[in-house]
Amino acid sequence: MMSLLSKVVRGGARATMAARPSAASVMGADGASARVLRRPLALGFHTAPACCSPKDRNTQQAEDIAAAAGGSNARTDESITVEYPTDDKLPSSQPVTGAGRAGVHVFPTLATFSLQGKVGVVTGGARGLGLVMGQGMVISGADLAIVDLNKEEAAKQAKSIVERFRKDQPEAKKLPKVTAHYADVSDQASVDSCIAEIIAEHGRIDNLVTSAGFTENFEAIKYPIDRMRKLWGVNVDGTYLFATAIARHLMERKSKGSMVFIGSMSGSIVNVPQPQAPYNAAKAAVRHLAASLSVEWAKAGIRVNCISPGYMLTALTQKILDDNPDLREQWTSLIPQGRMGSPEDLMGPVTFLLSDASSYVTGADLRVDGGYTVT
């Protein structure tokens, strides 16, 4: 991620190398928190004297790199310690405007992308990425159950999604049914109770998106074990408990279904310089859990895929950028597409993976990161 980019000016007297900016991050790849970047490090390398051979010059440049950089841009910084904010300090999100005009009379598309007649569940759906992905499901025709630890916020957003749908599609003959439900995703009894409540309200469940999750930045040897267990409980146990509960429901109905686990690019790479080994490992577990369950449940007609977002511009990260306007340019310099992701960037991918348009896609990990992880 923080690799050095070199530019050698052929025939000139000087070669330069610039390091990507180092980042003191307090933001997970799902946009859950924020990060502070330091200024880029510029390193200059003079050519060797004319008496030296090309091999000598190359050797000298390599030694200069090692001496000046010493791998510092590929290491974590143990001084970065950030806890995830409490619920009362999390900014509220808003449904996306202008995204709801869909359908054959506006923008023709394949009928297989429709979620018409489906009932979807989104965990962590009251804010951020979960809220916008849920809205995308509703726009695509689904009824929706928003699950969150904050039921009051979930109820407010359920109403907002329906109102937004009404404004965007005033001629719609039927309004979507969007409900709010409480669950501690890390507790099996709470999950089972929530699933039963959703089935009682909607009659069934067809799709699941597991968006509940959070990250924290701690040096591993100093990370409190109780917080480690909480992080894994939400990110990993929560995904497993909801997936298995809904899979049992689908198998009992002998019905097909589709699930999308929200992982992170952090499940495939090691973020630097912020130390977040527990989070990275948790998201790697989510990614491989999706692959494993996709094989186990394929015979039941249940597809399981993973979406791994990069750095996303949620309400929380926007607040950080408002307070630190110089950070945007530094952040986007790390991303080949030159911008951070927007929550709306996940509407299409999640709809595709839930719909029949991806009926032969299962066990996949779709990275939505602007090319971050391929550089």
UniProtKB/TrEMBL annotation:
Record GO terms (molecular function): mannitol 2-dehydrogenase (NADP+) activity; oxidoreductase activity, acting on NAD(P)H, oxygen as acceptor
InterPro entries tied to this protein: NAD(P)-bd_dom_sf, Sc_DH/Rdtase_CS, SDR_fam
Keywords assigned: NADP, Oxidoreductase
Record-linked Pfam families: adh_short_C2 (PF13561)
Coiled-coil regions listed in the entry: none
PROSITE patterns: ADH_SHORT
Keyword Thylakoid attributed: no
Entry superkingdom: Eukaryota
Single GO BP term: mannitol metabolic process
Homology family: Belongs to the short-chain dehydrogenases/reductases (SDR) family.
UniProt cross-references to PANTHER family, sorted A to Z: BENZIL REDUCTASE, DEHYDROGENASE ARBD, PUTATIVE-RELATED
Protein name: D-arabinitol 2-dehydrogenase
The organism of origin for this protein: Cercophora scortea
